[in-house]
Amino acid sequence: MPSLKLGNTVIPYEERRSRRIKRISIRVTPEKVRVSAPARTSKSEIQAFIDKNRDWIIQNWTKLQETMVKPQRVYETGEKIPFVGKELTLEIMDTPQKMIRALYKKENEVLEIKIPQELQGEQRQEALREIIEKWYKQKARTVFLQKLNNWSQQMGVSYNQFRLKEQKTRWGSCSSLGNINLNWRAIMAPEPVLDYLVIHELSHLRHMDHSSEFWENVACYCPEHALHRRWLKEKGHGLVI
Ligand SMILES: [Zn+2]
């Protein structure tokens, strides 16, 4: 792969030109910088665009290199992905259609993905990652809502609003207004861990702190909470796609 030299920074570089691309754009990923441009864009136009965005590229590239610790997974048929303590098998099928779709087949724990056959290589992997994330978020919303409703009834509390969040370091939060946020990535954890997270946030409706009274309340509904907390601490960073 060619590379782009910006000052002291050397970055793998890819250029894509296509009639289907309407305007010139730059994308910085943990692996490379990619410029996409309409088919007839000249070399000098591309160079000018890169020069104009030079600082932005360096900044983003550096940031990604520092924070990217997650290994890039390859999604293909037979690969397993975690879901509420289970492992789903991916089945990826080419379709002549333009839409990408995911279908969960509960009976054999398969996530079937139909993907436009024209998507290949890295584009294909990106599309797969996106659809899997979208599917996780949909499922997370449903599962969390069920659990919130179930546990809030059992605990005799009521929350205000629920929002699905994506946070780097937090699994959930509860505001003084009774709004509960939960991180969609938790949907990849075992079910008792999910229950613990929900019970934890709902307990904040009684105690807004992490006092001993708070933990007593958590323990009433989730006696093994310490175990689940440890699980999240040790394995939580691996719940990425
Ligand atoms: Zn808390």
What's the structural blueprint in terms of helices and strands?
Layout (H helix, E strand, L loop, with lengths): L2 E4 L2 E10 L6 E4 L4 E6 L4 H10 L1 H14 L12 E4 L2 E10 L5 E5 L4 E7 L4 H35 L6 E4 L6 E3 L5 E4 L7 H13 L8 H10 L3 H11 L6
Parallel strand pairs: 2-4, 6-8, 9-11
Antiparallel strand pairs: 1-2, 3-4, 5-6, 7-8, 10-11
Helix pairs in contact: 3-4, 4-5
The structure holds zinc ion (ZN).
The site of zinc ion (ZN) has 3 residues, from loops.
Characteristic key phrases:
4-stranded mixed sheet, 39% helix, 11 strands, alpha/beta, 241 residues, 6 helices, elongated, 3 domains, Zincin-like, binds zinc ion
Quick gist of this model?
Residues 22-234 form the YgjP-like metallopeptidase domain. This protein is an alpha/beta fold.
According to DSSP, the number of beta strands is: 11
CATH architecture of the largest domain: 2-Layer Sandwich
Helix percentage range = 25-40%
The CATH topology of the largest domain: Zincin-like
How much of the sequence is in beta strands?
25-35%
Question: Mean pLDDT across all residues, rounded?
Answer: 92
What is the C-alpha radius of gyration, as a whole number of Å?
Answer: 22 Å
Q: What is the level 1 CATH name of the largest domain?
A: Alpha Beta
The count of helical stretches stands at 6
Pfam family, one: YgjP-like
InterPro entries: UTP_pyrophosphatase-like, YgjP-like_metallopeptidase
Keywords: Hydrolase
Domain YgjP-like metallopeptidase: 22-234
